[in-house]
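Known limitations

Files may contain more than one protein. Parsers should not assume a single record per file. Below, a two-record file is shown to illustrate correct handling: read the sequence, read the token line, then continue until end of file.
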Amino acid sequence: MFFLEWMEVNGKGNLEVEGYDLVELAREYGTPLYVYNEEQMRRKCRNYVDSLRANYPDGEIIYAGKAFLVKAMCRLLAEEGLSLDVVSGGEIYTALQAGYPMERVYFHGNNKTPQELEMALDMGVGRIVVDSIMELDLLNGIAAKKEKNADILFRVKPGVSAHTHSYIQTGQMDSKFGLGIEDGQAMEAVQKALDSSYINLHGIHCHIGSQIFDVQEPYRLVAQKMVGFLNEVRENAEVTLQELNVGGGLGIRHTSQDSPVAIEDFVQIVSEAVRQECEKNNFPLPKLMMEPGRSICGEPGITLYTVGNIKDIPGIRTYVSVDGGMMDNLRPALYNASYEAVLANKATESPEATVTVAGKVCESGDVLIKDLEIPSPERGDIMAVLTTGAYHFSMYSDYNRNPRPPVVFLRNGQAKEVVRRETFEDIVGMDIIPSEFEEGGNE
């Protein structure tokens, strides 16, 4: 069975995290349930901060909020000294409500609305990462009306493709994100920003993709392309930009076959690549920024389900249905992502059955795990699907009008509920019945 090193099995034979029995946790809060090992998330934050400090003179770790963002996570990030990457007005508002310092917020997105840009300026967001020339014009106009300066980075496309799923590759030229270096759009945007009265251009940003295991060559190329462009800007526009954001993308363990690079090694590889390229170009070291998300919150997350109906199709497969599915974990249907799971109440028992874990929504494609080896399953077993901390809660839907699960943080034997379970009343709370329906419609 696949266990992460911080998991334990207690005397009852149940899976335990941070001194808390996951079977008891499921009974206390119900299932489906998102569980996070808070101590592990904090440890990964510190690994990033300490590694960058040890390998580079001026750097900043910016957590990618789209991976998982609630108010409690904002507080955790502030305590651990991380900045925050947001991609919507809703994420800005979440940070604001959590009391997160707005000057440490970076606002990304390929189609920010005028209302979101106004919100970012009004709230004092630290950097707006501009994605297109049209957005630059829009932002400059809004800033002029407000008589406020907009501090920006440009998102550029370095033309580097990571070896990952095509849906999460973002650095190649054919991408909806960013301005191309090769086609001259990025340089055109730089010149325009420098000529704009209310725009302060500080640097450039890129992101080449997610769930990357082979980091050496892609990030060497990223450093080469990005520092090369900074040097081109210095030569052509006679300005030395001082901030370089290389994004995130470090892969994590979803299965026992995954072998990701350690955080410390990843930071060292990227830092050394940037330093070497700056030395080649005689370019002063810029402030180096990295944007990890998945590699901070992914592995520390577990989703607990209760096993329901078990259906054996002789000679074909056995379906084990759980009380969640693609509404709380869209990644298998969207990316064909692979997971492993254990029966938390049978953690000491040997595998006896090969099953397919199916969700409860009305879709044939609602399958979470194929060919999972587990002890003989029974109705009422508690199934723990591992490494579900990133892009699960954040991508949840109310499909089939299933309520959203709660979120619990575990640390030092204590469980803290940070998101309550959604109720049926919550689901219908925004529904409106037009008055003519109440009056009997066309009768």
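...continuing to the second record:
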Amino acid sequence: MRFEFIRAESAQFPIRLLCKMMGVSKSGYYAWRDRRPSKCARENAILKSEIRVVHAESRGTYGSPRVHQELRKYRSVGRHRVARLMAEEGLQGCRPRRFRRTTDSQHMHPIAPNVLKRNFAATRPDEKWVGDITAIWTGEGWLYLAVLIDLFSRKVVGWAMADHMRTELALMALRMATGRRRSPKDVVHHTDRGCQYASQNYSDNLLAAGITPSMSRTGNCWDNAVAESFFATLKKELVHRYRWPERRDAQNAIAEYIEVFYNNRRIHSTIGYVSPADFEALNVNHFPAMLAA
């Protein structure tokens, strides 16, 4: 550390004076300065460069576990080493904040049974979807986002945004999902007990599409943990990092995040550290109907 200090300050002060201040000899400093970096130091320098690239490509969102998984695709490296080098470079992943709940379960609409029962595993695409609505603050007021996520690949298959959270918002996300997935049958559709999902209009659309509704128990966010987790990730990695003067600014950024980054590039631990799109591509031979999804 003393030699590093001397090198850093040598442009401003004489080396002789700096060595005297730090209690080291000039010959010792020059020997240290001219010494060839060790093999480990050279490898760490290369690895740090690769870490910076992976972290930048993740838009500054990946912590050491995901950076480690990306590096493992083309080199052998230890998890703790990656974490240590990231700390030395001042690199870290995004951290979550508290979120605002948007569920209005104080209504008279009938409630569907909890068919999902926290079984978030799926053996095929379009076997189970989970959905929810969240709020994003902008300079023009709240923007509301509704999503539907396929539990097989964790892909966001339907989404919609509006300046309100009426049933039409949830229906737009549902119509996108059924259109993209070519009107799949026998889907379990799980949400909370929000009035949008319990409304007669939404229930009629599920029935017409041959989709089975499922709803969480009262006040139990863990029953819809995957949807809650997606919103936490979205806000951690995008929403809370920027200011949105207008709703359209947030809409454009969120749409790009979902379609370009989250569905197609961001690796997901639940599906083996690949992206949802890559996971579906890897399994397309087993499920030919996914070719058109």
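Parsers that stop after the first record will miss the second one. For reference, the second record is described as follows. The first helix runs from residue 2 to 9.
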